[in-house]
Design goal:
Catalase HpII,  Chain A, domain 1; ten-stranded antiparallel beta sheet; globular
Length: about 325
């Protein structure tokens, strides 16, 4: 697969019907959604990004190690119902699952807690994020929109990549899986786990499959356009799919406010428990429209870190939800 997903976007997606961006003084989250609409077009009823997806149901059971790190009821050890959405990237609801711009794939989880509240985790297959701020993410999208195939060289997106080296490095970490069940998903933002004694630990989440299987670009291109969306329901008919929810523990000095900076690979990983995906939601298309996943929707025992992208993502998802609900 080509490393620079935005370059694929600029050639494959620029033909999508554009909409006019709103005033520059709009909140940056709204500018991000406007920029996504500019790149991908507006598709009524669908998300501005990760428009194509499938909803599943299952449960989560936390580990004793998780309970030692956080007092959240999520990690108390009882079975917690969870709604899971797997998705392709881009705002195109008909993008082929094997197309390079369909990476990174997403896995969003909504845990339904015993007190009736929810807490969310929003992860994707990028090992770290291409930019550190909402303004830079908006500018990346606008650079893609301004880089049609016939644009003079260097294109706007090539210039952006040259000045933001974390972006091409991040996009180089993704590949197309043979199944949503055989992919690793990362929480690129840091969160703080707080235990019963008040001890605080910065973490980044990982969702680790039983096996990891990636396709090479040529194989992915030959697959049917909906192969990921069709494979998962068939797999679940044969039995559940499991992921281990893990926490990478930050060491002193590891940055929590910059999603472009992966923590060293030797940082301790703690197994927080097992997510069991049991079945596809009875009406996945209807469920998708009703679901809003917010990275910053946490519960007692979990706090957002100082990463500015958490608030930006919350706001952008809310803008997208409002527009697709109209």
């Amino acid at each position: 697969m080509k490393a620079l997903v935005p370059l694929a976007l600029s050639s494959v997606l620029i033909a999508a019907a554009p909409t006019l961006a709103r005033a520059d003084d709009a909140p940056v989250a709204e500018q991000i959604v406007n920029a996504m609409n500019k790149v991908f077009g507006v598709h009524a009823g669908f998300r501005a990004n990760h428009a194509k997806g499938i909803v599943a149901e299952g449960h989560f059971k936390g580990s004793p190690e998780a309970a030692a790190l956080s007092k959240a009821s999520l990690f108390a050890g009882a079975g917690i119902p969870v709604t899971i959405r797997f998705s392709d990237a881009t705002g195109l609801p008909t993008i082929p699952d094997g197309a390079p711009p369909a990476n990174p794939h997403g896995m969003a989880l909504k845990f339904h807690l015993p007190d009736g509240s929810d807490t969310d985790m929003v992860t994707n297959s990028l090992k770290f994020f291409p930019v550190a701020s909402g303004a830079d993410f908006r500018d990346l999208l606008l650079a893609v929109a301004a880089s049609p195939p016939d644009a003079p060289k260097p294109t706007k997106v090539e210039q952006f990549m040259a000045s933001h080296p974390a972006a091409p490095a991040a996009f180089a970490t993704v590949a197309t899986p043979d199944s949503f069940a055989d992919e690793e998903y990362y929480g690129v933002n840091a969160f703080i786990l707080i235990n019963a004694a008040g001890a605080r630990q910065a973490v980044r989440y990982q969702l680790v499959p039983e096996k990891l299987v990636h396709l090479d670009a040529a194989d992915a291109a030959k697959r049917p356009p909906n192969f990921l969306m069709e494979e998962l329901p068939e797999r679940l008919k044969r039995g559940p799919v499991t992921f281990h929810l893990k926490a990478q523990l930050a060491a002193p000095g590891d940055p929590t406010n910059d999603a472009t900076k992966a923590w060293p690979a030797d940082r301790k990983l703690v197994d927080l428990g097992v997510v069991t995906v049991e079945k596809i939601a009875p009406d996945s298309a209807t469920a998708e429209r009703a679901l809003l996943f917010l990275p910053g929707q946490v519960t007692d025992g979990i706090e957002a870190s100082d990463d500015p992208l958490i608030d930006v993502r919350n706001a952008a998802y809310a803008v997208s939800f409002s527009r697709r609900s109209q």
